[in-house]
Design a protein that fits this description.
The chain has 353 residues and is α/β, with parallel strands linked by helices. It is 39% helix and 18% strand. The protein has a single domain, classed as Aldolase class I (TIM Barrel, Alpha-Beta Barrel), CATH 3.20.20. The strands form 2 sheets. An 8-stranded parallel barrel has the order 1-4-5-8-9-10-11-12, surrounded by 9 helices. The longest helix has 18 residues. The two termini are 22 Å apart. Keywords: Heme biosynthesis, Lyase, Magnesium, Metal-binding, Porphyrin biosynthesis, Zinc.
């Protein structure tokens, strides 16, 4: 119960708003009635499907850590067919991640016109035009030999990640993705000022129409393991706790979101989703006018897949329950590996509720 709701409830009860005159179950007795008065509604158009491309592949490669998902060659019919299938199911938005053939300290492949994500975007655009909403991850961890989201530097305090030099690279990456045809760039590095640097770079290059979906409240989480395995993007030394958020903090997420909004973010994000529903709710309550995405991450996806494989849960029921909980908490969009499966269930008209 939300704070402040007890007094109105007492007033209603004293006015006769109680059993047997009021029977709350009347609105729960039939699936049609439940759907009619449901407070939260899922629709495939609110899902964002992650896509993975890798240089040098000859054919799609199944992902051990993400069962049911593949890495694709950047210019492949299979990738276009996947996007087409998603569009037919009502999933319109896609978040693209890339793995280069060669990594380096600078991670220059991240902003190369011939980078895997850039080539994939151009290929999908040539085949499908502007029907899909294409978002592209902006970070360095998958492109660098050290695996950090920014550039490490030796200091008297030990190795620190350089903030300002890193966000300069984010600007270059973002412009290259805009040139390729991205609708949105999605900075995930959690560097201070990353949104402002990217907005400035995009505007100066003439891409004022390209939006920014910022990983505003990205927590230092153990739920990213399967994704890092897929992308070979785990840090080679240390960890990311000096730049990703402390899981013990909730209100700090609001500060991060407000900073990103002031710098020009069009959509903000909370990541992960399932263990941070309270943060999603707090952000939406505090900044209701700003579109909010939540990332239902790889570890959350794999836990459900593993439980379903063992016959411990009904997969479709729990999948929709999880996605509904994320939307109910306040997310306007959900980045999820369940996107196609959930869209298929919703399109069929089946519901566990």
């Amino acid at each position: 119960m939300q704070r402040g709701s007890e007094a109105p409830l007492r007033e209603l009860t004293s006015a006769g708003f109680s059993f047997p005159r009021v029977r709350a179950r009347r609105l729960r007795l039939h699936p049609g009635v439940r759907s009619l008065v449901a407070e939260t509604r899922l629709d495939p158009s609110m899902f964002i499907l992650p896509l993975f491309v890798e240089d040098g592949l000859k054919s799609p490669k199944p992902l051990r850590g993400l069962p049911g998902h593949f890495k694709y060659p950047p210019e492949s019919r299979e990738l276009v067919e996947l996007v087409s299938r998603a569009l037919d199911l009502g999933v319109r938005s896609f978040l693209v991640f890339g793995t280069p053939s060669m990594k380096s300290f600078e991670g220059a492949e991240a902003w190369s016109p011939q980078g895997p994500v850039q080539r994939a975007i151009k290929f999908v655009r040539a085949e499908l035009g502007w029907r899909p909403v294409i978002m592209a991850d902006v970070c360095l961890c998958g492109y660098t030999d050290h695996g950090h989201c920014g550039y490490p530097r030796e200091t008297p305090r030990g190795v620190l990640i350089e903030n300002d030099r890193s966000i300069e690279a984010y600007g270059k990456i973002s412009v290259s993705l805009a040139e390729a045809g991205a609708d949105f760039v999605a900075p995930s590095g959690m560097m201070d000022g990353q949104v402002a640097a990217i907005r400035s770079a995009l505007d100066n290059a003439g891409y004022t129409e390209v939006g920014i979906m910022s990983y505003s409240a990205k927590y230092a989480s153990g739920f990213y393991g399967p994704f890092r395995d897929v992308m070979d993007s785990a840090p080679r030394f240390g960890d990311r706790r000096s730049y990703q958020m402390d899981p013990r903090n909730r209100l700090e997420a609001v500060k991060e979101v407000l900073l990103d909004a002031a710098e020009g973010a069009d959509i903000v994000m909370v990541k992960p989703a399932l263990s941070y529903l309270d943060v999603i709710s707090e952000v939406k309550r505090s900044v209701p006018w700003l579109p909010l995405a939540a990332y239902n991450v790889s570890g959350e996806y794999l836990m459900l897949k593993a439980a379903a494989e063992k016959g411990l849960v009904d997969y479709e029921t729990v999948m929709l329950e999880i996605l509904t909980s994320i939307a109910r908490a306040g997310a306007d969009a959900v980045i999820t590996y369940h996107a196609l499966e959930a869209a298929e269930v919703l399109k069929s008209g089946k519901t566990p509720f």
